[in-house]
């Protein structure tokens, strides 16, 4: 196997899922004591979150680009940015390295296409739901993208930062997400994008009346697939 480069820590709760899933998938495919070849750079999310709130995306992109270079120098063959929101600076990160970066929205769109979906309800941080960097990427694959109304977006965002990023999983919050999802489905969504890596810690397939697209798992599966054998 070639080496997966992970740029994480945003938050480390979801990055731990990336690491766990990569090793679990490799073991399921190869059996025995097999595990994934991984290089992981984990940033301090407090620094990145401060830049998000301040709108200092160029500085955040510079920090992530420097980290990506270190991941490449450590031997990674492919890069995964273990956060949906920071894909706002994906172009900056990709331009900093010579290895390919798997874009989360692209792997999600591929799965939505395989599932025969057409209208996607997008859940994520306020940055992901309200700015166009992620919605437009999905729309560019031919999907109609719906986001929740303002009050619902505020609830979704608050639960991510105040609870899930801190490892707190609460049943009332799960119910809030169920209700937000139901309203998106009422508006025509035939699939729900769990467009924040932490949301998969809370929302399960049975919490939605339509298929959910777990972006973290889909991202990891794509990374394992492209690194499972050396090129001839």
TrEMBL record:
<dbReference type="InterPro" id="IPR015942">
    <property type="entry name" value="Asp/Glu/hydantoin_racemase"/>
</dbReference>
<protein>
    <submittedName>
        <fullName>Aspartate racemase</fullName>
    </submittedName>
</protein>
<dbReference type="InterPro" id="IPR004380">
    <property type="entry name" value="Asp_race"/>
</dbReference>
<comment type="similarity">
    <text>Belongs to the aspartate/glutamate racemases family.</text>
</comment>
<dbReference type="GO" id="GO:0047661">
    <property type="term" value="F:amino-acid racemase activity"/>
</dbReference>
<dbReference type="Pfam" id="PF01177">
    <property type="entry name" value="Asp_Glu_race"/>
</dbReference>
<keyword id="KW-0413">Isomerase</keyword>
<dbReference type="InterPro" id="IPR001920">
    <property type="entry name" value="Asp/Glu_race"/>
</dbReference>
């Amino acid at each position: 196997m070639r080496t997966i480069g992970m740029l994480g820590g945003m938050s480390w709760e979801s990055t731990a899922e990336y690491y766990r899933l990569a090793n679990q998938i490799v073991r399921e495919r190869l059996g025995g004591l097999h595990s994934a070849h991984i290089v992981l750079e984990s940033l301090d999310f407090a620094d990145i979150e401060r830049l998000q709130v301040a709108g200092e995306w160029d500085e955040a992109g510079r920090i992530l680009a420097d980290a990506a270079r270190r991941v490449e120098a450590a031997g990674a063959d492919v890069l995964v940015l273990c956060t949906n929101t920071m894909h706002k600076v994906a172009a900056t990160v990709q331009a900093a390295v010579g290895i390919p970066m798997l874009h989360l929205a692209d792997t999600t769109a591929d799965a939505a296409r395989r599932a025969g979906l057409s209208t996607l309800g997008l859940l994520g941080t306020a940055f992901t739901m309200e700015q166009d960097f992620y919605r437009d990427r999905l729309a560019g694959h031919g999907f109609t993208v719906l986001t929740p109304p303002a009050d619902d977006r505020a609830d979704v965002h608050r639960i991510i930062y105040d609870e899930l990023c801190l490892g707190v999983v609460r049943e009332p919050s799960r119910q809030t997400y169920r209700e937000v999802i139901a309203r998106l489905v009422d508006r025509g969504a035939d699939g729900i994008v769990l467009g924040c890596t932490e949301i998969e810690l809370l929302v399960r397939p049975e919490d939605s009346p339509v298929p959910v697209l777990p972006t973290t798992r889909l991202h990891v599966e794509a990374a394992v697939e492209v690194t499972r054998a050396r090129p001839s």
